[in-house]
Amino acid sequence: MSDNAHRPIGVFDSGVGGLTVANAIRQLLPNEKLIYFGDTAHLPYGDKSKETIMGYSARITQYLLEQNCKVIVIACNTASANAYETILAEAGDKAMVVDVINPVVEFVTKEAGYKRIGVIGTKGTINSGTYVGKIIARNPHVTVASLATPMLVPMIEEGFIFDDISNAIIRSYLSKPELSQIQALILGCTHYPIIKNQISKFFNFEVDVIDSSRIVATHLRDLLVSKGQLNPDPSPVHKFFVSDFTEYFQVISKLFFEENISLEKVTL
Ligand code: DGL
Fold it and tell me: SS3 letters for 186-227?
């Protein structure tokens, strides 16, 4: 085991959505100490330019490196799609980097072997073409239908889940003809695991709905095992930072992390 094993894992997102990934990590890797950063002062990332997302991501990466993190987990599809190389360059040899797109692309093309895949996400994720480009690069025989679904993040954050309004919005997006023949749908936004069951139901459970949070946690575990960096210390104390604090962030964080947590404000 390497000395690095005792260092924390940094996880970041534009807000509290990435807590779905943090939750999957803590369930699979209960000894790992998490430092979460939600950039609530700048959300949503989904409507921002690539340059802006790169700038925010670089600054957050520096902060997580200052906290001595051994891995930076980019728990945001929009940042993974637009700033992965920036974050890799910033981390250098100080920390490993795990994004939420590459492990999912590997899963759908290698392990699952789908031929017709759909992906939904923010405008920033879908318009970047990252999912389509990476899937086709691995298997040119796969068809990928991608659709920006920008109403889903505010819908989830406002608590419209498993009701008539969310059913109508989900139906309106997912009944688009380009998604009619898919075998699997990638949830290309870390907010969407919250409505995974509702989406599965829309497809009468005939389409595999891919929740990246579990795939990313499994990828992270395999990486830590291969580097001898699994943390042996039990009972970790996690920390949760946000760049802007409101009571509302505090309340909805429970929806994503499935446990009461206390958010602390930090100015970068
Ligand atoms: N959670 C972010 C993602 O995965 C979406 C929220 C946002 O637009 O900031 O893309």
Answer: EEECCCHHHHHHHHHHHCCCCCEEEEHHHHHHHHHHHHHHHC
3-class secondary structure, 244: coil
The model's pTM = 0.96
List the domains of the chain with CATH numbers: 3-99+214-265 (3.40.50.1860), 102-212 (3.40.50.1860)
* Sequence-distant (≥ 6) Cβ neighbours of residue 222 within 8 angstroms: none
Rounded to whole angstroms, how far apart are CA atoms 74 and 57? 9
Is-cis flag, bond preceding 236, omega within 30? no
Q: Give strand pairing partners of 36.
A: 11, 240
| CA 28 – ligand 1 centroid, Å | 23
Catalytic one of 16, 29, 189, 199: 189
Let me know if 69 is a catalytic residue: no
- Read off the pLDDT of residues 202-211 as tens digits, 9 standing for 90 and up: 999 999 999 9
Q: How deeply is 116 buried, as exposed, middle or buried, from its count of CB atoms within 10 A (0-12, 13-18, 19+)?
A: middle
